[in-house]
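Researcher: Predict the fold of Cytochrome P450.
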Amino acid sequence: MPDTSILTACICLLVALFLWFRKSKASFASLPPGPKPVPFLGNVFDLTAKELWLPASRWAKQYVYVHVLGVGIVFLNTAEAACDLLDKRGSIYSDKPFLMMSGELCGCKNMVAFTPYGEQSKRQRRLLHKAFGLPVIPTYYPFLQTGTHAFLRRLVVEPSEYMKHIRRYSGGLTLSVVYGYEAVSNDDEFLGLAEECVGILSNRIASGVGIWPVDVFPSLRHLPTWMPGAGFKRNAAIWKKKMEEFVDRPYEFMKNSMKSGTHKASFCSNLLEDESIKAVDNFEFDLKWSANSMYSASIDTTITTVSHFILAMMMHTDAQRKAQEELDRVVGTERLPTFADRASLPFVECVFKESLRWAVPVPLSLPHRLMEDDLYNGMLIPKGTLIFGNIWAMLRNEAVFPDADAFRPERFLDKVSPEMERKRDPQNYVFGFGRRECPGSHLVDSSIWLLIASMLATLDVSKAVDECGNVMEPTVKFENPIFRTPSQFKCDMRPRSQKALSLIRQSEILTT
Ligand code: HEM
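Model: Structure tokens for Cytochrome P450 follow.
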């Protein structure tokens, strides 16, 4: 929670009191169920900064209503509710909250995930679709292959640093695809900048549900920075500077390399060379912010998914062996897997799907803002309510995923109706819903699949053993309020054979 002075707290309290009494009793009568709020402050004390998706799933089965200082928040705990509201009523459920703290004071308002529903968000999403729409994905296969093989090479040299290598892989891939920039080491300046800024965004600015007193009472922004209680303004000034650097520096690098003729083709350079698109109003502004949004959105999501995959393989060696047998049978041991093998590797596909389901990388998705009062199943959802799709609850639904907490890839082999087939596909959940659904989903479908298949083909993952020969059981915590990133755990990762090791080493010669 940001530091606040007694004065700020009193102002908050008075205005909350005013808002509370201004609402008619009727508007409260039919709100969705939720934990009992305390007077004035609402459910401030119910909203934990860590693993909020857990209490949100317990409070009510289908949908939960809470409020913080008068700002309504709904958690949708079922796929049906998310589909009914965020998909089918997308025209009123696709806005984003205007948050004074993150948007204005910290300078994030033009990032795609923050832009209000309207012309700007549509223009930005058009650019993203151009970059990562389904038909374009095969053009990235060479990048994905090179990035995956380089990741394997780093991993066999320094397996205990797997988190660092995943970060370098995902950040490096996006930097090269988006800006044509090649990250040269794990300490690369742009990778470091991205890590710092995404950390500030998720752990500081958007901690809890990301609502600060200044979001509820925008006039607090006029507090002089020196005043006790205005610590949020001092922090925001520092964070805004960092965010601007994060947006500007990789973009400037790309523009300068275009000027000097040394650039590599990238999403940005291709669009800058396209005369028909350049003519669109605000083109360069949109391009710069869309590019940054892809970069910031891809890193922690990828780290979360891949580290869950490693954790699952370590805990479930039976599933690992089964996938490896399939790879040995279909691909053999003389080469690394490619996208051409995908259709012949059904069990690897199950491991990929189950890794996404088990990980739930963004468990509460990102908030959407309701643009007008809405009635749903006899309940009132007031205009301005923030809507969170509780993806965690949907992917732990026992009716669709029996034994939901367990990692069981074979669940996807069970014969089911086409309706259930659609219902149980984790890709229909993990990327969010409706008109703000993740525009990177097709890229992820290819990039993470190849990474998983290549790791399974070449590496054995098992629990680490300490100096005395005792097997070390992993202890995992989830500390990030937005991403379900497991804390780093110890594991043993080594090449499956001498042949696998030479395939990994040779991959450098084959791709250069
Ligand atoms: C495992 C990987 C990923 C997961 C699980 C994931 C998940 C999500 C989710 C849940 C949302 C919120 C959707 C909503 O508001 O309903 C989102 C938004 C977004 N994602 Fe992803 N994402 C992943 C990777 C990526 C990648 C690789 C990119 C870009 C290359 C990307 C770009 C974005 C952007 C720009 C948004 C904001 C969209 C908007 O508000 O209109 N994501 N993602």
